[in-house]
Protein backbone atom coordinates (compact mmCIF):
# COMPACT_ATOMS: atom_id res chain seq x y z
CA UNK A 1 0.00 0.00 0.00
CA UNK A 2 1.13 3.55 -0.67
CA UNK A 3 0.04 6.73 1.06
CA UNK A 4 -2.42 8.85 -0.89
CA UNK A 5 -0.48 11.87 0.39
CA UNK A 6 2.72 10.91 -1.41
CA UNK A 7 3.79 12.97 -4.37
CA UNK A 8 3.79 11.83 -7.98
CA UNK A 9 7.50 10.95 -7.80
CA UNK A 10 6.91 8.49 -4.95
CA UNK A 11 9.46 10.15 -2.64
CA UNK A 12 9.11 10.43 1.12
CA UNK A 13 6.93 7.33 1.37
CA UNK A 14 6.73 4.37 3.65
CA UNK A 15 5.55 1.30 1.77
CA UNK A 16 3.79 -1.51 3.65
CA UNK A 17 2.78 -4.99 2.54
CA UNK A 18 0.80 -7.63 4.44
CA UNK A 19 2.60 -10.95 4.58
CA UNK A 20 1.32 -14.34 5.64
CA UNK A 21 1.16 -15.27 9.31
CA UNK A 22 0.01 -11.82 10.56
CA UNK A 23 3.25 -10.11 9.56
CA UNK A 24 3.90 -6.88 7.66
CA UNK A 25 6.88 -5.66 5.68
CA UNK A 26 7.69 -1.95 5.56
CA UNK A 27 10.34 -0.04 3.63
CA UNK A 28 11.40 3.52 2.92
CA UNK A 29 10.94 4.67 -0.68
CA UNK A 30 14.15 6.70 -0.40
CA UNK A 31 16.18 3.54 0.33
CA UNK A 32 14.95 0.96 -2.19
CA UNK A 33 18.10 -1.17 -1.85
CA UNK A 34 17.63 -1.69 1.90
CA UNK A 35 15.68 -4.87 2.71
CA UNK A 36 12.25 -4.25 4.24
CA UNK A 37 11.69 -4.50 7.98
CA UNK A 38 9.29 -7.31 8.89
CA UNK A 39 7.01 -6.64 11.87
CA UNK A 40 4.52 -8.77 13.79
CA UNK A 41 0.95 -7.70 13.15
CA UNK A 42 0.46 -6.28 16.65
CA UNK A 43 3.56 -4.11 16.35
CA UNK A 44 2.51 -2.85 12.92
CA UNK A 45 -1.02 -2.04 14.12
CA UNK A 46 0.38 -0.17 17.14
CA UNK A 47 2.62 1.85 14.81
CA UNK A 48 -0.29 2.73 12.50
CA UNK A 49 -2.47 3.63 15.49
CA UNK A 50 0.24 5.90 16.89
CA UNK A 51 0.69 7.59 13.52
CA UNK A 52 -3.06 8.24 13.27
CA UNK A 53 -2.99 9.83 16.73
CA UNK A 54 -0.07 12.10 15.76
CA UNK A 55 2.42 10.46 18.15
CA UNK A 56 5.21 10.87 15.59
CA UNK A 57 4.50 14.44 14.54
CA UNK A 58 7.11 16.99 15.43
From TrEMBL:
Organism for this UniProt entry: Nonomuraea salmonea
Limits of the DUF397 domain: 2-52
InterPro entries: DUF397
Protein name, as recorded: DUF397 domain-containing protein
Top-rank taxon, per record: Bacteria
Lineage, uppermost ranks: Bacteria, Bacillati, Actinomycetota, Actinomycetes, Streptosporangiales
